[in-house]
Amino acid sequence: MAVLVPALLLAGCAPGAPKGSDKATLDEAVSRAIGDPNTCVLIAERDSGRTVYRYNTATTCDREWPACDTAGSRKLKDLLERAVADGQARNLSCNTTPDGSRGVSWAAGPIAGAQGEKPLVYAAVMEGNRVFPGLMMADRLSRAWTRAGLSPEQP
Q: Can you tell me whether residue 2 is helix, strand or coil?
């Protein structure tokens, strides 16, 4: 019981899904697009910065990886804050090990034509030995947003 209560409290703090979308459908679409144990995706309302969706655990999403566009490292929440602030797309990739056997990719930006009351932005990170480049992550996620009903079909 002592272990169950804190776990339930933490689970209750996790964001669900953007208004008008289904978390299970969104989880499935993200999983098919870029799902991996070292993947995290966050979606926030552009106006308020409030996180409305998280794919994967808080522990996975709180890891620091090389920033790729500047010296040092970052967490995904830092990239999400930049996307909220300026709405610009970012697609980055670099190595996480000196021998180049592992890498990290970052993707962030607006969710095109997001359905619902508020414009949405996302940030995603993926680390491992076979990660997609940041630009490919962004492309795959744009199709996931459509499959999950967040974005309209693109011509």
A: coil
